[in-house]
Each structure stands twice: as C-alpha cells, then as structure tokens.
C-alpha cells in the first residue's frame, strides 16, 4: 500500500474509533469493548434469536437484548466500525428460504465474516478468503431450508453503511428498512449456473441435524 494511502486509512480508522455515531455512552462502551471480530461474534451468539418482521437499529437491539440476522449484522458492523473497520455488509441471496446478512471485515487482504443465525454454520468466518465469492461459497453447504434443500444462490458486493449515516441507521428508534432496501438494490453475483442448481441433492440427515444444533424454535 502506498504510504499516503496507508496514512489516510489510519486516520480514517482513528476518527471512527473516536466518533460516537449518536450512540449512548453505555452502548459505546459495550461495543468498543468488543475489540476483535471473535469477541463480536461471541457477543452476538449470547443474544437470544428473535423471529420478527423488524429492522431494529443497533441501539434498539442493544436495549432489547435480542435480534435476528439483519439486526445482528448491523450490531456487528457498528462494533467493527467503532474498532477501526469500515461498516460493510454482504447479502446472501437464497431461493425457497430467507436471505442472510454478513458483517464483513478484512485482515491482511483476506475477508472474514461475523453473523447472527439460528443455523450453526451460518455465523463466523475467519479471515482466510481471498475474494467475497470464496467467502460466500463457504456458507453454501450450511445454507439449507427445513426441507433439506440447499438454497444459497448468489451474493452481493460489499455494501458500506456509511452511505446511510444521514438516516441514523445506528440509533433510529424506527425500523431501519433503508438497510435491507440498500442490500436488495446492490449488485448480486450468481455462485453457479441455474442448471447446476436444478440438480443439487438434498442435505443428508446427519449434516441437517448438525446445522440445527442450538437452534431456537419459533
């Protein structure tokens, strides 16, 4: 990385760690204490999973102490931002299933992910993936519906939530539907041709049950 670019990046990181983005002091302390992606994932795992048609801001999710995959991703993106990472999300697009949202981070040029999910295999990824396609594919075998169908089909490019700062996505008391709207509008890339998807076998019973370990029932 050229020196000037590296200095600019470091300044941006320092500025992000100083800003509050409108969060209450207690929430700032909580999220700034999660200094690594692993700590952020452990924090998300400890929050009860909720089934709800909501899009809570990170501040609201912290107050309610629960959330689903979108709200977990927003919490993770905020914690990452407060610790020097850009607030990036990736949308995983599925058929006959819900989409999934991953908070992205990058270390030494390699991608990793933090996520909230009711399925064991759709959560944390260490930063070992050279491309976002590699990262998205790492979720493929773990992405299935209750009929055992493998449902992941596409992934989005990285979506920077800083674009929505004027809409107060971090602290809004109203649902922040602007975030899923931005994710839906992002360019998505297919993981494989349709003819491959048509011939995919269903998941075996052992793998199916392993992925449901710790699942919260509706």
What does this structure look like?
The mean pLDDT is 93. Strands 1, 2, 3, 4, 5, 6 and 7 form a 7-stranded antiparallel beta sheet that branches. 37% of the residues lie in helices and 16% in strands. With 218 residues, it is an alpha+beta fold. Strand 1 (88-94) and strand 2 (100-107) form a beta hairpin. Helix 3 runs antiparallel to helix 5 and helix 4 crosses helix 5. It has one domain (3-211). It contains 9 helices and 7 strands; from the N terminus they run αααααββββαββαβαα. The N and C termini lie far apart (48 Å).
Task: Name the features.
seven-stranded antiparallel β-sheet, alpha+beta, 37% helix, 218 residues
């Amino acid at each position: 990385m050229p020196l000037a670019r590296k200095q600019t990046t470091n300044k941006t990181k320092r500025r992000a760690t100083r800003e509050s983005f409108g969060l209450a002091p207690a929430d700032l302390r909580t999220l700034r204490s999660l200094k690594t992606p692993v700590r952020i994932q452990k924090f998300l795992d400890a929050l009860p999973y909720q089934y709800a048609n909501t899009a809570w801001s990170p501040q609201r999710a912290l107050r309610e102490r629960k959330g689903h995959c979108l709200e977990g991703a927003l919490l993770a993106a905020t914690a990452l931002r407060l610790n020097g990472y850009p607030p990036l999300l990736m949308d995983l697009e599925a058929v006959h299933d819900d989409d999934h949202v991953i908070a992205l981070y990058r270390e030494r040029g390699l991608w990793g992910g933090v996520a909230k999910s009711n399925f064991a295999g759709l959560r944390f990824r260490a930063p070992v993936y050279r491309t976002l396609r590699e990262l998205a594919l790492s979720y493929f075998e773990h992405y299935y519906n209750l009929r055992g169908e493998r449902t992941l089909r596409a992934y989005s490019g990285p979506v920077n939530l800083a674009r929505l700062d004027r809409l107060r996505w971090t602290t809004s008391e109203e649902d922040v539907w602007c975030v899923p709207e931005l994710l839906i509008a992002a360019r998505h890339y297919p993981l494989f041709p349709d003819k491959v998807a048509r011939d995919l076998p269903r998941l075996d019973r052992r793998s199916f049950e392993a992925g449901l370990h710790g699942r919260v029932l509706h």
